[in-house]
Amino acid sequence: MARTRLYRNGTLELKDFPVHEISDYVCEPTCTVWLDLCDPTSDDFEMIAEEFGLHALAVEDAGHEHQRPKLDRYRTHLFLSAYAVCAEPDGSLDTTEIAVFITPNALITIRKGERFDIQQVVDRWDEAADLAEHGVGFLLHGLLDYLVDGHFNAVQDLDDRIEALEDLLFEDGRDEIRTVQRSSYELRKNLVRVRRVVLPMREVVNTLLRRDLHVVSEPMLPYYQDVYDHVLRATEWTESLRDMVTSLMETNLTIQGNRMNLIMKKVTSWASIIAVPTAVTGFYGQNVPYPGFGTHAGFYESTAVMVVLSAVLYVSFKRKDWI
Question: Could you read off the pLDDT of 25-46 as tens digits, one per residue?
Fold first, then answer.
């Protein structure tokens, strides 16, 4: 599947025209071409490599999955690898890889599956049609703005989930304790995934702002600066959330340890109280004469000793909040 667009002098002139017609426009300085390929074949890669003069290493990276987010510079073009992130309702994260070739008057996007909603990027281009005169810089900005907004939304969703988890941290229910333990581990895994995607984007956008690349024209600089600001905010937010999750897990372990100490303290206190009757009855159970041996008075005296000593221990433990 392929989608195409042709902008001439800042005006959208053609949509979804045949791919083989790209060669008719790609050499015209007044034209800007967008080509989108979803799950391209080896023949598709050969076609775009020949049509746009792409470097073999860049084409190879575009064909392989699990590339790190990066911006590679070649003699005639740039190669961008990035990820779209979407937070699912069940708390999981869906990451989709996209590869982008950036030439002086063409933008080629390579999607690794249908999960990447390219239509939202197209909608952003249509909403800012007055910037289309800035060519590839305009198209690339719409794509980056969509990607970074997705990163920001994913981080915000993780922040909301961490706050909800903090409310359960001091609950005593068994289900709540298990939820905190399981969710905190899942949040930590998701934050690691988001961090791997978000942090490299700071370097990517910062490199694009360099004037020697001639990708971002002067009027587009404020728009790219805004994207860069969002990248920095998402990066700083991700780092702070990682610290929060670590603190959450450590606090949970501390609370569980305190609860265990409290339980052990109560069990030990009751065991001490129960040990008093055991000791008294054991003493009076000796097969030797003792005061009150064989009389009712001895029974009453031993019973009184057990009750009094048990009461004294109970009151003493109660005052120390051990029971």
Answer: 888 889 999 999 999 999 999 9
